[in-house]
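Hi support team,

I'm opening this ticket because the web form for multi-chain structure prediction keeps timing out on my end. I have pasted the exact lines I submitted so you can reproduce it. The total is 892 residues across six entries, so I didn't expect it to be a heavy job. Is there a limit I'm missing, or should I split the entries? Thanks in advance, R.K.
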Amino acid sequence: MPREVRERQMLDAAVAGFARHGYQAASMDDIAEEAGVSKPLVYLYLKSKEDLFTACIRRERAALVEAVRGGTGADRADGDGPRAGGVPGSGGSGAEQQLWRGLCAFFAHTAARPEGWSVLHRAHTQGEPFAREVAGLRAEITELVTLLLGRAAVDAGCDEEFAEREVSGLAHAMVGAAESLAVWANSRTDAVPSPKETAATLMNFCWTGLGQMIKGARWSPHR
Amino acid sequence: MPREVRERQMLDAAVAGFARHGYQAASMDDIAEEAGVSKPLVYLYLKSKEDLFTACIRRERAALVEAVRGGTGADRADGDGPRAGGVPGSGGSGAEQQLWRGLCAFFAHTAARPEGWSVLHRAHTQGEPFAREVAGLRAEITELVTLLLGRAAVDAGCDEEFAEREVSGLAHAMVGAAESLAVWANSRTDAVPSPKETAATLMNFCWTGLGQMIKGARWSPHR
Amino acid sequence: MPREVRERQMLDAAVAGFARHGYQAASMDDIAEEAGVSKPLVYLYLKSKEDLFTACIRRERAALVEAVRGGTGADRADGDGPRAGGVPGSGGSGAEQQLWRGLCAFFAHTAARPEGWSVLHRAHTQGEPFAREVAGLRAEITELVTLLLGRAAVDAGCDEEFAEREVSGLAHAMVGAAESLAVWANSRTDAVPSPKETAATLMNFCWTGLGQMIKGARWSPHR
Amino acid sequence: MPREVRERQMLDAAVAGFARHGYQAASMDDIAEEAGVSKPLVYLYLKSKEDLFTACIRRERAALVEAVRGGTGADRADGDGPRAGGVPGSGGSGAEQQLWRGLCAFFAHTAARPEGWSVLHRAHTQGEPFAREVAGLRAEITELVTLLLGRAAVDAGCDEEFAEREVSGLAHAMVGAAESLAVWANSRTDAVPSPKETAATLMNFCWTGLGQMIKGARWSPHR
DNA sequence: TATGAATGAGAGTTCATTCAT
DNA sequence: TATGAATGAACTCTCATTCAT
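Hello R.K., no limit was hit. The queue was backed up. Here is the completed structure from your submission:
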């Protein structure tokens, strides 16, 4: 059996095992058995448990990023043609649509591959080498979100400074909210919401606030 | 040395160890050594590794909840007398202020006790008994947030149905965003923001959006 | 080295260790070392200390029962054809001969495998799961003896009632006497008696008494 | 509280604990708790677990020996008055009566103090220092039985050689049979036999055989 | 006399990992 | 390419035993 096929079997088994039991509790014995191969073969192909887990993270990370990027249309020639423009809240900005589609893609992906998502979501807890890897993923996503938010702000005519000073925190908030909603949506037993519904919840939650900020309004405790 | 003191030393050491290495990777040997105590004593007082970790979670959970509850003023006689009222966005609602102060307290607490926060934040990954414990914490906080959001909505004169149908999802988003921001704030090496700044970021992010929702506006992809 | 061979080595080492130190005091380290093997291998093959000890008991029990059964000729087609008959004391009963040969086999076996015998003899002290196992052995042997004694009684023409009422106690006495003699014979440093001598001692001790009982005579304190 | 009283409490608790769980499995913690004292006090009075167990054995051994000796009337001025005389089987020998009464006393004692008996019965399994102690008890009892059997033989007019050559083995058989019957009687849940019944079972079993031997008859396999 | 507090030493068990084939 | 056989190292947990008071 060709190496690539075997290797994918192993990664599948590993993702399943790590998702179910976590990094430490999943044993190489179980993973090898689930993959239908002997343990030495796993070591021959994937070096060590650490490397195996890293490979899982990388694969799932790539899949998630590809899904979200695809959703935003970032890979399509995007600046072409007239953009609908407009501020958040006024409807139809290109960046706004991209964000919306990215969120939809994100929730669709995490719902479609719960085990992969579980691996990613749990990996930052598992010690240094993996935390770094997931931090990379988070940075990648956050950067994308930051870009979109920033572009929306610029579209709306607000100064560059805003993008640099405040958008990053907002992006972090958004990513955290999305993460939380993904877990929540995946774990519901009753009426599990569709990806679009979940994405709409998040857009409802924050988009207007963002629009206000771009206009220069700030929330403050004593008004 | 009296039992209570020793026990607190052990819990301190355990929180530090679990925060640094995670549940599985932290060894009882190391924890005992860090506590300046022999291993058998740890077992004598805290029964088992599982019980020790549970005790850590419970302690930190209680501290966090107390801090946040105290921040919201939930323990003060608060509903009495006429409330200032007001919609989100119009300033000065009782619920809005409570939420604001709760967030400040939350970010202040997580910044003041990074290890305790780390334990709580990582515990849901560490297998069933612990996941349940932090799920309880999350539920407790989410319920509080749901209550505040719902009350704000009612204050603003919107129908009860809103509270029941949508507020829960929003609360989850908010809790997730707060969690993410807490980690992010704690992990920054440059210019770490004050708790109030972080809380303001989150309020800016979502409060206006919430106000719009209460008024009946909904975000939709094709406008 | 093939699994079966290794497994037998381990059982041999375990029987030796348990015989020398008892269940609790024998350490898995020592057993593994004596078997010329690492500890994990012992666990891989035999699961746990408890299972290992149980396996020892079962093996030695089977060997002992087989030896004794073989000695009685119970496996040969023995009841067929006219039996020589005869009461205890009158010589030559089939049951009497079987008992004699069974005793010889028993003492020969316990002398030939002192460690195995020691394990069996000491196991009833070592807690529930093992006590049950040797209780089974004891019951098996006692039942065999009861059968032979009962048959001898019936051969001698005594009523069935005798067999049911009193033979069981006698069988217990006989088994206990045999057990005691086996230990005693094994532990002698001077002139250790041959199995046949030991068996003859026991037959001398009780056979005539049994014959008298069958005839209806009873010992009583005040005659 | 005076030392003697405390010490007896501890021994009582220890006997109970050792009887229930065996030497190794009984913990000093449990014993101290059952005795209603702190652990250091146990160590102050009884030095170590080994010494504690030895003390238990010695106390129970002394009690058992005293009971049996008392039963045989060995401590009474025994040669006085006319003895009934007679061979085993012919009724009424002094030695025979002594043996009978000794057996009754033995079974009565083991039934009355099951925990003490359990300690003694299990101690020979627990490693060297204790095995020696119980071997001493066994030797003491066996010697007594040997003496009685030998005296009976001499009473019956058989030569001295018999006593020296064969009586010892018979005594071992008898002691083993008695031991086995004691355990069996103690462990029965249905109709537990009285000490006298158990003793009668044993006398029935062996006394006539012994009588025959004294007369010079020997059992042999081929008659 | 009596104890609360503490520990050294060692047990059973598991797991990632590697030979030899 | 693939594996049955084997292990070093580490972990959780327990227990007899002793200070300091």
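A quick check on our side: Chains B and D do not touch (no CB pair under 8 Å). Let us know if the file doesn't open in your viewer.
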